[in-house]
What we know:
The structure holds two protein chains of two kinds. Helix content of chain A is 41%, strand content 14%. By secondary structure, chain A is an alpha/beta fold. In chain A, the strands form two sheets. Chain A has a five-stranded parallel β-sheet. A four-stranded parallel β-sheet of chain A has the order 2-1-3-4. In chain A, strand 5, helix 8 and strand 6 (194-198) form a beta-alpha-beta unit. In chain A, helix 1 (2-13) packs across helix 13 (295-314). Chain A is globular, with a radius of gyration of 19 Å. Chain A starts with a helix and ends in a 7-residue tail after the last helix. Chain B is an alpha/beta fold. Chain B has 15 helices and 18 strands. Chain B is globular, with a radius of gyration of 21 Å. The A-B interface holds A 22, 99-101, 119, 121-124, 126-127, 141-145, 179, 182, 205-208, 210-211 and B 203-205, 207-214, 216, 280-281, 322, 325-330.
Amino acid sequence: MTTYAETIAAGLTGHGHLLGIEGLRADQISDLLDLADSYVDQNRAVKKTTDLLEGRTVINLFFENSTRTRTSFELAAKRLGADVINMTVASSSIKKGETLVDTAMTLNAMHPDVMVVRHSDSGAVKLLSEKVNGSVINAGDGSHEHPTQALLDALTIRRRKGDLYGLRVAICGDVTHSRVARSNIHLLNTMGAEVRLIAPPTLLPSAIDRMGVETFHNMKEGLEGCDIVMMLRLQLERMQGSFVPSRREYFRYFGLDQEKLAMAKPDALVMHPGPMNRGVEIDSELADDLDRSLIRTQVEMGVAVRMACLHALTQGTLAGDVNSGGSKS
Amino acid sequence: MSQRDNKTKRVYINARIIDPASGLDVKGALLTEGIHIVEFGPKLFKDGVPEGIEVINCEGNCLAPGLVDMRVHLREPGDEHKETILTAGQAAAAGGITAIAALPDSRPILDDVSGVEYVARRAREAKMVKIFPYGAITRGMEGKELTEFGLLSEFGAVAFTDSTKAVANAQTMRRALSYAKTFNALIVQHPEEPTLAGGVMNGGEISTRMGLSGIPNHAEIIMVERDMRLVEMTGSRYHAAHLSTAGAVDVIRQAKARGLPVTCDTAPHYFCLNENSVLDYRTFAKVSPPLRSETDREAVFEGLADGTIDAIASDHSPHDQDSKRLPFAQAEFGIVGLETLFPLALQLYHKKALSLIDALSLVTNKPADILGLSVGRIAKGGTADLVIFNPDSPFFIDPEKFRSKSKNSPFTGFPAQGKVLRTVVDGRTIYDRTAA
C-alpha cells in the first residue's frame, strides 16, 4: 500500500493540489484508483479508521450547499484519522464584503493541511489554491471540474468491468452546466474509453466535439452498443422553457428508461452522480434496479476515492512542502 | 506664466517629421511659438538656430502629431480609486497620447450638460492631455430616452455613445441615428446583441473546457448587421467601437463598399492577443467584447491593414485589484491601455502590414477625423501637440511601471517595439523620458 502512495505522492507533487482531471496522466489515475481500491475493504470492515492523517487538519470549505459530497469528504478524512472542520459559506455572506481571497487567506493562517473546496464559479478553487500553503482538493467548481466524482465513477466502472480501456460510455443530459461531465470526459479519454454525449443541442456547449467526444441528439442512436450510461442531473429551472420546453418532453426524449436502455449492450450499466430527479432524467424503477444501476456503489466508492486523494496529497511530506512547486502570489 | 508661454519659441531639430494627415515624412526641424506650430520642414534653420529659441534636439528620432485615443474610461467622477483625470493624463502623456475622448460611463453618467462640463473643467485643471468627453446616447445609458444631443454638443460632447452598453432596442437606435442628423452628431455603438452576450469570455472550445459561459461571435455580427440596416434607413453617420470578430469586420467592409457612412475602430488586444490569454482564469484578460479566436485576431489585423478598420483606440478600462482578483465570472471586464496603445499600434508596422506613417495614421489623424477634431496633425498654425519617439527600440511591457492607477493589463512580458521619448501638449512638454 505504501508503494502506491509513494508513487502517487510523487506524481501529484507537481500539482500539490487536485484541481482537475485535465492534465493528469493515465498512470497517475490508475495509481489513485488502485489506492482507492485498497480502501474499499477498510470501509467495509468493522473498524474503519486508521491514523494515517493523525494530527492533520482538513477543512471542508463549501461555498455551495452540498450534503453528500461534503459528508463523503468528511468521512474520508475522519477514517484516516484527520481533524475535520466543515465550513459552509453561503454565497450571500461573500457578497457582503469578504472576498474569496480574503476567506482563503484567513483560513490559511490556521494552517490547514488540506482544504476541500466547492464553489459555484469555474476557476474559483484554482484562485483559492494560489493563496494557501496547504493542499487543495477541488470538490466542484462551477461548470468546470469535479475530479473526485470522475475518479469515483472510474473506480465503480473498473470494479465491475475490470478495465476502462475500450469501453463505450455515454454521458447523457445537461453537459453545458456539468462539471461532472467535463471531468469524466477528461478521465475516460485519458484511460482509453470511447465517450459519447447525448443531449439536445441546447444542453451541449459550443465546440464540445473538440474535447474528443462524439455527440448525439437521439438517445436510441447514441446508446447503441454502450457499456456504460452516465446520466446527468438537469436542474429544474432549466426545464421550464429556457433550455428545454418541459419536464415531460425532456423525459420523453432524453430520460433513461428500459426501452431506450435496450439499445445499449445487454450488460450495460447505469450511473448517476446524484441527486437524481426521478422521472425526469431517469426512470424510477431503473434507478433502483440493482442489476443495472450502480448508483449506490458510486456513493460507496466516493468515500474510498476521497481517502485515496487525501492520502496521496499528504503522504510522506508536510502539506506546505507539497505545494512548493506551485504558483503563489 | 501663460502670457510668457504664449511667446516662447521652441525648435525641435534633427527630427524625422512624420505627419500622416498630409503624408509628410522628412528630416528637418519644427518651430513652435506658444501653443502653435509656426513652421517646419527640411530647410528650416538649416544653417543654425538663431538666439533666443529653446532648442530640443530630437537626435534623429521621429516627431509626429501626438496620439488621439478615441476610447478611454476615465473613472472620474465616481471611481477615483481606479483612475483620476490626473493619473489618466499622466498615463496618456507617457504613452505619447495628447488627446483622449472620455467615455460617458462615469458615475454619474455623462448624460447631461453639467457632467460634460465637469469633465472638461477638471481636464483643464489637470493641464495634461486634452480631454474630449462623449455624451451618452440615452439617459442613464438605459437604452430608452435620448439625451440632449444639441445642448451636449454645444457644451463639448464630441460624439454620443452608451459606452460598453449596446443600444439594443432597434427603434431607439433608429431615432438616435435620425435625431443625430440635426446636429451632424456621430453615434458610436458598442456592437453586441445583449441577449446573446450574457457570457464572460469568447464562446468556443476554451470556454467549454474552462466551464465558463461563452459569448458567441454572432452577438457582435448580428448587432453590426442590424445597425447597417438602420444606417441605410436613416442615412446617418455611425461608428462601431472595438470590433473583435472576423464577421463584423466583413460586414463593415461590405457596408463601406456599398457607400454607407460608417467607420469603426478596434483595440490593440483584439489584434495582438487571442482567447488563449484567459487560460488559467486570468481575469486581466477579461474584456468586453471578449478576446476571440486566432482566426478573428488575424481578421482584425487584416482589417487594419486593408483600411476597413479606421482607427485604433486603447479602450483604457482601469480596474483595481479587488475588481479583478475574483473568480473569473465575478471579475470586472476591462484592460488598461493608455501606456501600451503606441507600441502595440506599431505592431502593424513591425509586422510589415503597414508603413510607419500609415500605422501612425490609425492613432492620430484618422480618429481625430472621425470625431471631427482638428488635433492629430502637424500643420502651420495648428496647436503643437507632438510626440517624439523611437519606433524601433525594443522592450518588454511591464504594467508595474505604468503611471495609471490601475495595472490590469494582460500584456505583462509582451515583447514590443517603440518608445515614447517626449510628449508635448500646446507647446508644453508634459512627458520627458529622460526626466521620468
